[in-house]
């Protein structure tokens, strides 16, 4: 599958019949809110884990030297915390462009972080069949890769460090993200 998913998302999942949709963000969508939203709430999804296994050709790297960014990997017992936004459906024109480097959007259920209920909404996932996918490697190697990468949206290290800070703000622990952060801080010293 091509790594530009803009058209695929628009064609296979038109949203015009809806007024607003909830969107779950687990990577840069937690801290980089360059889109209007009606409301936002911390949330979590079950059965998925956050992994820095996706290549970035357009934000934190280039096609020649991709960066490493977050995607979700299915894992039956996992829980992934993030931020949910209620947005009007016209906002997906911007979001589909922003997330075009391999991410497809899916409807799934997410639960409010305070456990007060749940809602059905969209999440962008970059699966192993997209051309920009890099796959697993050790957290130390991921940190080394992130330390040397940069792209049009800035240094790859900024993506990781802002995500780690946002998870702390949510009082959430993520072993994978915090292990990469530890190695990265040593490298940036
Ligand atoms: C997300 O944040 O939910 C998707 C991945 C990203 O844009 O970093």
UniProtKB/TrEMBL annotation:
Enzyme Commission number, as recorded: 4.3.2.7
Domain of life (superkingdom): Bacteria
Pfam family membership, one: ChaC
Transferase found in the keyword field: yes
One GO MF term attached to the UniProt entry: transferase activity
Gene Ontology biological process terms, A to Z: glutathione catabolic process
Cellular component annotations (GO), alphabetically ordered: cytoplasm
Keyword Cytoplasm in annotation: no
InterPro entries named among the record's database cross-references: ChaC, GGCT-like, GGCT-like_sf
Keywords tagged on the record: Lyase, Transferase
PANTHER family in alphabetical order: CATION TRANSPORT PROTEIN CHAC-RELATED, GLUTATHIONE-SPECIFIC GAMMA-GLUTAMYLCYCLOTRANSFERASE 2
Name this polypeptide is given: glutathione-specific gamma-glutamylcyclotransferase
Organism for this UniProt entry: Pseudidiomarina atlantica
């Amino acid at each position: 599958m091509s790594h530009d998913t803009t058209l695929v998302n628009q064609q296979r999942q038109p949203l015009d019949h809806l007024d607003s949709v909830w969107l779950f963000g687990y990577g840069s969508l937690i801290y980089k809110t360059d889109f209007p939203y009606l409301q936002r709430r911390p949330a979590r999804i079950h059965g998925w884990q956050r992994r820095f296994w996706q290549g970035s050709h357009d934000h934190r790297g280039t096609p020649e030297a991709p960066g490493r960014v977050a995607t979700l990997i299915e894992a039956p017992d996992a829980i992934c915390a993030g931020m949910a936004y209620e947005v009007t459906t016209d906002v997906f024109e911007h979001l589909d462009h922003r997330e075009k480097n391999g991410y497809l959007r899916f409807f799934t259920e997410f639960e409010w972080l305070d456990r007060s209920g749940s809602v059905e909404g969209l999440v962008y996932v970059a699966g192993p069949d997209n051309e920009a996918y890099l796959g697993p490697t050790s957290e130390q190697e991921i940190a080394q890769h992130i330390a040397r990468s940069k792209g049009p949206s800035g240094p790859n290290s900024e993506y990781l460090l802002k995500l780690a800070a946002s998870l702390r703000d949510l009082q959430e622990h993520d072993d994978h993200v915090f292990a990469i952060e530890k190695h990265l801080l040593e490298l940036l010293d």
